[in-house]
Automatic annotation (TrEMBL):
Source organism superkingdom: Eukaryota
Source organism phylogeny: Eukaryota, Metazoa, Cnidaria, Anthozoa, Hexacorallia
Span of domain U-box: 433-507
Database matches in InterPro entries: SAM (IPR001660), SAM/pointed_sf (IPR013761), Ubox_domain (IPR003613), WD-SAM-U-box (IPR052085), WD40/YVTN_repeat-like_dom_sf (IPR015943), WD40_PAC1 (IPR020472), WD40_repeat_CS (IPR019775), WD40_repeat_dom_sf (IPR036322)
Keywords: Repeat, WD repeat
Entry-linked CDD domains: RING-Ubox_WDSUB1-like, WD40
Residue ranges of every copy of the SAM domain listed in the record: 364-428
GO molecular function ontology, one term from the record: ubiquitin-protein transferase activity
WD repeat extents: 8-49, 52-93, 94-135, 136-177, 213-236, 246-278, 288-321
Protein name, UniProt field: WD repeat, SAM and U-box domain-containing protein 1
Gene Ontology terms: biological process: protein ubiquitination
PANTHER family listed in its UniProt record: WD REPEAT, SAM AND U-BOX DOMAIN-CONTAINING PROTEIN 1
Amino acid sequence: MAVLVNTFAKHATDVTSCSFSPNSKVLASSSGDKSVRLWNIENGSELSVSPLLGHTYSVNSCSFSPFGTILATASTDCSVFLWDVDSGSMITVLQGHKNVVRVCRFSPNSRFLLTGSADETFCIWDVSSKKLVKCVDGLESSVLTCCFTPDSLHIVTGTSMGDLCIWDAQSGKMMKFYAEGHDLGVADCCFSPTFGSANPAFQDTSGGAPQFMLATGGNDNLVKLWDIFTASAFSAECHIRKRCSLNGHQGPVHGIAMSPNGKIMASGSSDKLVILWDPLLGVSLLTLEGHTRYVTCCAFSLDGNWMATGSNDRMVKLWKICLTESGELDQSGRSTSKPILQSTLVKKQEPQEPKKQRKKLVTWSIDDVCSWLISLDLDIYCESFRQNAIDGMELSNMTSEVLTSDLGIGPAGHRNKILRTVKEIKKEELEEDIPDEFLCPITREIMTDPVIAADGYTYERASIDEWLTSGRLTSPMTNAPLKNSSLTPNRMLFMLIQRHFSGQNINV
């Protein structure tokens, strides 16, 4: 059973990544709004040092060091920041990539930081000296995900072409290439922390090849489990063997995570769902609903009690994972074949019930409207609204004249409060349904001056101008060289964006 205990809603755009501190007390979340936020798990508050600001474009990944003193963040601005978690101050900026940095992961032994980029490279950094140890190129496509093996001796990378590779972490030599591990790209990967050679109790004095379990999520809607055999005392060869493919999602799988005991695996997808799996049996255990847009990331706390999920709906959700004494998912609360989802709020929320239920304004009943008035401390007008049968449809078209003449609302402050709040609700609803093509690929913000670059993609003029003037002569989307720096106004898209918002009288 998994219980929703809190929802963090301070990010302005998509949540891209989340990571728990090793003591399981702090949750970090990164976003396309260029910020990283730190949350107190126990009381749901944001830490005083949060948000962490400094990146100039979307923050795509965040990761706590094994000791929890450092937080690494990777960004579209081509840089990696290291932060002091206690003070919230920036320790250093790691410069080495020439394009978007998609992912950052620490080695389990805490000595190294691994970063992967759209420039078709991955870099290994020494955490103590903050120096670049090795930059490995030649992957021939963007590195979307990467991680160390549990013994920190090897690295696995997944690319936009769908290829999986094993690399020697010390030499940077490719040890094994597996083409098209996922048909449309490998979006995320992680190792089981307890399977095979990763288990602390595992003892092998024969010199045989270490064996680990790798989980991957792909744009082909699949979760896949793999056996990874690394170099042994008898052979330097590495091997990749597919264990199984798990069907369950109806969209690309963006996030994958293993519980600390290795008995539960989580996956998040464009279908807005999070599925919990038994990785040893290869079966689904529970499906969680709650996000209203793509689920982009998921993570377990080291104590195994918590799971976090992030989404394009700008929300980070915190789930309590209920376990049996043997450390398996407690499913005693299931009375039907459909998993039961419970929801409990740790913190008292503001009583805006229609908004909390994400019910569209035009579908509000008269009772919903009155509940909303009460939440605004304007309950003195409930009777008038009832007598005039003001439901959500009528409220959405409300004018100051109607409020005055028909509903008897005299104070200008009360009229303005009602109209202003209605406008805010309509704007929030509209933004929830914004087509992805209205957002700049670089900043993930609504475009006000869309232009077409030489790669055929449309960007916000100011963002692509800054990209080009900084010396980056490659496409932010494909990493291919740009033939020229010309920018053509996308008048059709501009008109569509204006039309989308004009119906609601909202300026972008």
